[in-house]
Amino acid sequence: MKVVGVRFKKIGKIYYFDPLDMAIEKDSGVVVETSRGVEYGTAVVVDKDVEESETFSPLKPVIRIATEEDRKKNEENKAKEKEAINICKEKIKYRKLQMKLIDCEITFDGGKMIFYFTADGRIDFRDLVKDLAAIFKTRIELRQIGVRDEAKMVNGIGICGRSLCCATFLGDFQPVSIKMAKDQGLSLNPTKISGVCGRLMCCLKYEQDTYEELLKDMPGEGDIILTPDGEGEVISVSVLRQLVKAVVKKENKNDVDVGFYSAEEVRILKRRHRKEERKEDYSDFE
Fold it and tell me: Is the dihedral of CA 119, 155, 177, 190 positive or negative?
């Protein structure tokens, strides 16, 4: 079946809809119905063929291709969102709530306003909801988000000097673990492998598949290997260069020598005893 992929934020998740018989062009505006109500989005994927089993059947149809009136209404909603943020900040200050307002969204039909905020713990915002509902005369939803979502919405500059990946092109957050930093031989200093959000950097995931493939047949530190010069113990490995640094015993067994060997010319005799590593040890919990 043919589907159209719609994105509701500049950098956000892509949701699929049934285009019916409409000739939808890429990057054109469309009006669709979602679980939150009628929404305005941008068609970023058009005429894509997918198996019915890959979609959440039945797919909701595209209501219409956006008209000039729809585009104006969407721009008006964007202007109202900025005004709503200022009003909500004043009410938060008045109520003395320990929360930080990040963003606001208004559904295309104006039936709901969603305010995103961060806080250290649970916040009793019932009075705040009443205040906002009395001002805007619509349904109000306050949604607490994590530090990664905050970074995606606010954007910033990473240690590489470029805009954050999550706010530039990453649609979804990929699981990142400290094991990836270990596999890639990076310093485990939190300040060097953490992003501006305080979590592990998303870019650790980019080269992980390559490192896993290169590490598959390589010995690890502490392994006993057989080298062209004899039996030795691995003291370090260079994954990208596929080199192994090992301490090799000489014939008199009292002297040792340090040598570099390619991964192809060594054979693993005994792996260092490693405790079973639980997944929780490396998970990046929020």
Answer: negative
